[in-house]
Write the structure tokens for this entry.
Amino acid sequence: MQRAAAIIGSAIFLVIAPGTLAVYVPWYLTHWHFAPPLFPIARVLGAADVVVHDHLVAPEILARLPRRATRIYAGKQRGRHTMTQGEINRLLVSLARQGKRIVRLKGGDPFIFGRGGEEALALARAGIAFEVIPGITAATGVAAAAGIPLTHRALAEACVLVTGSRRKGDADLDWEGLARPGQTIVVYMGLAGLERVSRELIAHGLSPRTPAAIIQQGTTASQRIVAGTLAGLPRLAAQAHLRAPTLIVIGRVVRLRRVLGGFMRSLPARPALDRARGTAQRVR
Amino acid sequence: MQRAAAIIGSAIFLVIAPGTLAVYVPWYLTHWHFAPPLFPIARVLGAADVVVHDHLVAPEILARLPRRATRIYAGKQRGRHTMTQGEINRLLVSLARQGKRIVRLKGGDPFIFGRGGEEALALARAGIAFEVIPGITAATGVAAAAGIPLTHRALAEACVLVTGSRRKGDADLDWEGLARPGQTIVVYMGLAGLERVSRELIAHGLSPRTPAAIIQQGTTASQRIVAGTLAGLPRLAAQAHLRAPTLIVIGRVVRLRRVLGGFMRSLPARPALDRARGTAQRVR
């Protein structure tokens, strides 16, 4: 399944080589500033000479690209990176210097664990202008499709977003900070580290009975939700043979999906595990 | 200025009375699941009998509503609430029971400090089915337009979202948790409490020199950014006579906009204060 994050919104970098800015500005400003939900993204895509895209971009979006546009796949899946981040940065700079109109197409939002800041910085340092169209980040889109409001009065007054995808040299997650009560925790790309997330949060004071859910391929027709307690979730996820991409949501708001899930019509019905209810249930 | 949050994406609740679901499902599933960035929101709006909308919805979006649709304004501005949340909840239930096709149109994302969970819960408890289309929440959209990536390797490995808008009986913010290093803090609706936010975070250990910015009417043509340090921001914001709606971003990532801001072409140039640079600068 290629399209989970893209389904919830694709972020687009418009990378504009110096001197070509005027080509874009008139219609871009008109449409983006005054009505983004109606924003004709097809027109942005249609203007591309080159599209550099990631793993989580829906084929339906790629299908809208003009035939003449060169497509470059720069996807990074766990253990299968086509390019390093440095190579992607250099590619964007190099293409822009050739005067190409580039669309950098990413799943989700480029500035929330999307490394969009690093790419933007590389462009800025090379003196290349660009535009950023924010996307719907997985936390928002996937949780909504799962019937979980990330904030809710009296249940969660804050929401913290972290990534479970770590590289060598990264600082460890601030377990003590994450384990503070009253906030919803969203872990991006956390499947591989789920057992550790559960263990550390409990060790740092979060109740083992805190409601928690892991959602695979959220917002797609292949969405699967496994819900239970913080202590029990790793075992349930293993039993369900979940695969990336996933999103983990931890906190009392997870309980709301038991009420909301049955009335949401956002997704086609599909069976999933929900041990908190004691039975498999259909996901809406 | 009425349209800040709407400009960054409007969330739509499709509230569907029991029995009318079939009207929506076919095209809804087709378009939403397979290509949301191309999703013809105009068609959703076009199907509405009644639209219940908030303050932060762009007039350009309201202009797309069919003439026959009844519009109900349920906006809440500081100190000027047309309806209480309970009244809004009851209104939605009552309209759905009359068999109306309702679009509940909110600025931003309904499940991030949008009280969408409360409305959805009221509907679910009344046995009314609905759909939720996630929006782009202010943190993502406004920060991106301001040239601030909310996460960035080595600068911020986590991002916490809180609201400065409190009501009687709400727990105080978890200042100790917010003041932990290594995360970006985003405060929604924080202008009135900015002085307190600054004081409490410093009292709880955050460096007074932590970069911080407050953005008024982010993503609109009237966007204004005031940037400085956590300690100095309240005075700068007062000098600039900022008005709601605003978004506050605190953390080392704020520094990136000094590099990125000059190369972003997301907004028309407009002067704003940036004391960190020592001079007024143009916002891109």
In short: Residues 196 and 234 of chain A are 9 Å apart (CA to CA). Chain A has two domains: 6-125, 138-283. The longest helix of chain A spans residues 21-34. Residues 1-10, 16-40, 267-284 of chain A have pLDDT under 50 and may be disordered.
